[in-house]
Write a structure and sequence with these properties.
By secondary structure, the protein is an alpha/beta fold. The chain has 13 helices and 10 strands. The chain folds into 2 domains: about 70 residues, Muramoyl-pentapeptide Carboxypeptidase, domain 1 (Orthogonal Bundle); about 300 residues, Zn peptidases (Aminopeptidase, 3-Layer(aba) Sandwich). An 8-stranded mixed beta sheet has the order 1-2-6-3-7-10-8-9, sandwiched between helices. A two-stranded antiparallel sheet has the order 4-5. Bound molecules: zinc ion (ZN). Zinc ion (ZN) binds next to loops.
Length: about 375
């Protein structure tokens, strides 16, 4: 059901005069190897091509001057999780290929396929009995949370491999006690729309443009939270969904929208249904759904107060400096956290990382990682 994902061939073939995010990422990788000394400007010029040729010579692969599949494959061992450019689905998948290479003790799978046909991956760390679930980028313009979880996977795996500590805990202890399941990008189509790594001639892109015209006060694509069809995935879960629908319709979200449209029925969007199915299959002891922004941790749904949820929430709060809070009424229903708490009566949290206007600037990433590393590391021990 949740079978393994394919390896490789996520990155585009880039050539002279190509431009965009993937060119920037290529330049970052080549500059880290001191083959490219130019600016990270996202334009594949002569200097970038010369660096690609040099890299190809070094790796004794076909010297084409193109960043083609064999070049990208040779770059996988040199992959870094970038914290200076927007984080797209393809770059994340490229990073996952690097994780596969470096950390054979990790397990990889997919929860299913997005509207646009992208495999939505999960990564499993550890083989203990206590199951933990972390999810990021349910909301498209909150993609910095994907970066947070990917960096955590990388650092945790590194600590485990080298028998080191992470956040002053033995990675080995956590690995044995728990299995941490991480869905680092729940809404990949939406993320790619926001980070401008989408085919602008596709029907999906054009439909999103059309949707956004009905909501002219929401900036496009920066204000986009929904899946590519304009359904807000965090308003899709069967936890008093009708209440969410009523509230959002009163606010004017009556049709597909960049945010806040509940859909016409719960779990209508495939990405919502897939996470629902995966979560039922998993039966995790603790769940964290990452969003931005506000530096706040939400822990309740209605009058459900799962055993130890407040206590663990208080610990998260003191580790991170984020405030533990009740959910405001207007966003109290149909969220993934709401449903998780209602269904399992286990601790489930929405964490609003960072502070500012979404998408949060990458300058905040260092602080976001620092604030949340303790939560991510301690949750398996607290559950
Ligand atoms: Zn959100």
């Amino acid at each position: 059901m949740f079978s393994y994902i394919k390896i490789g061939d996520y990155m585009k073939t880039l050539s002279l005069n190509s431009s965009g995010l993937q060119v920037k990422y290529l330049q970052i990788l080549l500059s880290r190897q001191e083959l490219y000394l130019g600016e990270i400007d996202g334009i594949f010029g002569d200097e970038t091509m010369a660096a690609v040729r040099e890299f190809q010579e070094l790796k004794t692969i076909n010297v084409t001057g193109l960043a083609d599949d064999s070049t990208w494959n040779a770059l996988i061992p040199h992959s870094v999780i970038p914290d200076s450019i927007p984080y797209s689905y393809d770059i994340m998948m490229f990073n996952i290929d690097n994780l596969k290479l470096n950390y054979p003790f990790l397990k990889f799978g997919k929860i299913g396929t997005s509207v646009m046909g992208k495999e939505i991956p999960y990564i499993q760390i550890g083989f203990g009995d206590t199951k933990i679930l972390y999810v990021a980028s349910t909301h498209a313009n909150e993609w910095i949370t994907s970066l947070l979880l990917m960096k955590f996977i990388n650092e945790f795996s590194h600590a485990y491999l080298h028998n080191q500590k992470i956040f002053n805990q033995n990675a080995d202890d956590i690995f044995k006690k728990s299995s941490i399941y991480i869905v680092p990008m729940h809404n990949p189509d939406g993320v790619d729309l926001v980070v401008n790594d989408i085919d602008v001639s596709s029907q999906y892109y054009n439909n999103a443009v059309k949707i956004s015209k009905d909501y002219p006060t929401i900036p496009f694509p920066d204000g986009w939270k929904a899946n590519i069809n304009g359904i807000d995935l965090n308003l899709q879960f069967p936890a008093l969904w009708e209440n969410a629908k009523e509230i959002k319709e009163k606010q004017g979200y009556v049709s597909p929208a960049p945010r806040d449209f509940t859909g016409n029925s719960p779990l209508e969007a495939p990405e919502a249904l897939l996470l629902y199915d995966f979560t039922i299959f998993l039966e995790a002891s603790l769940m964290i759904s990452y969003h931005t922004q506000g530096e706040v941790i939400f822990w309740k749904f209605m009058d459900f107060t799962p055993p130890r949820a407040k206590e663990i929430g208080d610990t998260f709060s003191s580790i991170s400096g984020y405030k533990l809070s009740d959910t405001p009424y207007a966003s109290s229903f149909a969220g993934f956290k709401d449903w998780f708490i209602q269904k399992f009566n286990k601790p489930g949290y929405t964490i609003e990382a960072g502070f500012g206007i979404n998408p949060l600037p990458l300058e905040q990433f260092g602080k976001i990682y620092e604030d949340n590393l303790g939560i991510l590391t301690m949750a398996p021990l607290l559950a």
